[in-house]
Amino acid sequence: MDKSRVKLKVDNISQSYVVGDEVLDAILNVSFDVYDNEFLVILGPGNCGKTVLLNVIGGLEKPTGGKLYLDGEEIVGSDKRISMVFQELALMPWKTVMENVEFGLQIEGVDKKTRREIAQKYIDLVQLTGFEKSYPSQLSGGMKQRVGIARAYTSNPEILLMDEPFGQLDAQTRYSMQEEIQKIWQQEKRTILFVTNNIEEAIYLGDRIILMSKSPGKIKEIYDIDLPRPRNSMDPEFLAIRKEVSENTDLAL
Amino acid sequence: MSVSDPNHLNESEYVESVRRERKRSQYQSAILSVIGILGFLILWQLSLVTGLVNSRFLSSPIEVVSLFITKLTDPRPDGAVIGANIVSSLIVALSGFGLAIVIGIPLGLLMGWYKGIDSFLRPIFEIIRPIPPVSWIPLTIVWVGIGLQAKAMIVFFAAFVPCLINSYTGIRQTREVLINVAKTFGASDFTTFLKVGIPYSMTMTFAGVKVAIGNAWATLVAAEMLAASSGLGYMILMGRQFGRVDLVILGIAVIGLIGTLITIIINAVENKILGWRKL
Amino acid sequence: MIKDKMKNMNEEEKRRYRLERLYKILPVISIFLLILLWSTVAAKSDFPSPKETCDRLMLLFENPIKGKNIFGHTAESLIRISIALLFNWTFGIAFGILIGWNKKAKALFTPLFNGFRAVPPLAWIPLITIWFGTGEFSKIMIVIFGSLASVVVNTQAGMLNVDQLYIDVGTSFNANERQKLFQIAIPSALDAIFAGIRTSTSAAWMVVLAAEMLGSESGVGFLIVRGMDAMDMPLVLAAMIVIGLVGALLAIITQYLERLMCPWTRVESN
């Protein structure tokens, strides 16, 4: 992580919805910097607007206020340099693993041979070699998430947004996927914004953790995690940070 | 959201602007719908007024409406006023449909729950199923003539299949967990069938009933065109024979309207009975 | 063999084993009873017996009616529905996509279309014969009118139910509207579209029958009416059997087509 280079600047972002006669503020005046090649975790209880924040950065929702700067330039809407890994398994059931992974390149209009080559590289990276022709319904939960990660990587983004990617996995698979994503990130350095509600996961993965408070979502605290990788969740330092973050976290309903 | 900079608006102004935007898009689609229907009617009327279409082939919407008013009291040329035709058709459709519900649903539930009944009745059902209801018409004429019974029987064939299939599939989808819960409380197989299986199948069964009433109404027309002396289908057929295109179009319109009305009613009933589904 | 197997079972298992065997024989018994019932009724009335019907069916292969044997008449009906379905699948799917995807087109056409679809397929027959006479074209039009709605309704429903999540994936990769439509929305609606294709096929088969019954010189529907007019009940029954068989066959073919075109649905059902 290079703290001298700000990759993405989130400036005073707010997002609110009108429900009936009321305005619900999902997130309110959120500002922070994301550094180049950083693994930044956004941590918070359920319904604290984490997903909304990610959707705004990914260009899926237009914020009601605030601005986003990528490499110092303002961005509006979805940007090619930003890719998303979705919370639910947003793999298209009618496409094979290969077709899902190469989807972004296909949209860009990359010719078939090139995009197959690139897609294959990332399928190999997430260790799904041999499953190229399978349909998502034939894969386990962990494998599906690997496909989602490979898909986000293929369009060669500078920033990856991951919205609770392991939320629906069983505990065992979740641990191994955490290790996996760390390995992938170390091999193919990118800036990652990773949303989770799991404190342990946040401390295991993050260079920094942004802790959010709930309704409306605001930044409560930012932690620097300077532990060496791979981290050990039984390490006393790890546990100390965990205790600190945990006591500062709002209870989810 | 089309608000350019909400930071300069206060909250109530902001809510107001968003709601206005939503209302506007609602109005827009309502207006478009009205334009669609009106445009169609105007084109229809114009095609005749301008002489683009020969009046032997089409009568204008205005003529059809005025015929409807005339037919309220005038039995010519098919021998019955429109009200009598509607009642006659409804009686046929409802008796065939009612019979299909009374026989089809219990049979489907029993077949879905008890394997013995299933393996006994399934082959017979599978033989009857692919035969279109219309092709029963000659047989029913031979069996029971062309009265109410014959038409009701044809309608029955059309409505019976979806009733049976849906209640059958519905009860077979009963969650194993629920059955086991009932069994651990000591419920007998029959009690489980009554208290768990049947309620669980209701959503699916109702979907079948909806298809069945649609089928019943559609087949009725065929039955009345091939074997009847009254009813809306018969009225259309007479219109054809007398070369009265206005009568044919009136018949089609009335059949369509009543079909729509039935759908609306059945949707309301479904919402009332199966309201728990939405909770 | 069976005795050996049963020796090692306790009472409960034996009971279950006997039941399983009973379930296997029951279908045979029921079909047998059906034929028995049919024969008894036939013996006591002038209703044709199974054997008479069978013989009549065999005769249909050899003796042509109006110059065509049973294959000829079936082919006539099949050609009629093929032309109509080909038109409906191209036009109906395109229209369904339009009113399922474009909000303005949906608002403009949906009420009109609902009016059209509220009219039962067969009710169009008199109007169409006024317009186009009683020729071949008119019959095809009847089938088109009769089986169009199910294609459009299913396609529209499929397009309206496209999961927002998939669209979001497209947005995040900067897909344009065209790409979202062709790469995401239409493929995800494919199974609904195929449901429309299946329903329209069986609807077309029913409608062609009715059209042929109301006035035709060929086709399976004509055979039924011919049997009725000539008081040839075995012919009516033989025609019904053929109609049922072809209907079942059409259902199997469209299902097979769906599996071929949407291989992922097959995977899911396993």
**CA(first)-CA(last) distance of chain B:** 30 Å
Strand content of chain B: under 5%
Task: List the strand order in the largest sheet of chain A.
Answer: 6-7-8-3-9-10
CATH superfamily of the largest domain in chain B: MetI-like
Count all strands of chain B and give the number.
0
Q: What is the end-to-end distance of chain A? A: 35 Å
Walk me through this protein's architecture:
Chain A is α/β, with parallel strands linked by helices. Chain A is built from eight helices and ten strands. A six-stranded mixed beta sheet of chain A has the order 6-7-8-3-9-10, with helices on both faces. In chain A, α6 (171-187) links the parallel β7 (159-163) and β8 (191-196). In chain A, α4 (112-125) crosses α5 (141-154), α5 packs parallel to α6 (171-187) and α7 crosses α8. Chain A is globular, with a radius of gyration of 18 Å. The mean pLDDT of chain A is 87. Chain B has two domains: 1-55; 59-277, MetI-like (MetI-like fold), CATH 1.10.3720.10. The model of chain B has no long low-confidence stretch (mean pLDDT 85). With 270 residues, chain C is mainly alpha-helical. Chain C has two domains: 1-47, no CATH class; 49-269, Orthogonal Bundle (MetI-like fold), CATH 1.10.3720.10. Chain C contains twelve helices and no strands. Chain C has helices at 2-7, 11-44, 50-62, 70-101, 103-118, 124-132, 136-160, 164-172, 177-213, 220-229, 233-261, 263-269. Chains B and C meet through α1, α4, α5, α8 and α9 of B and α2, α5, α6, α9 and α10 of C.
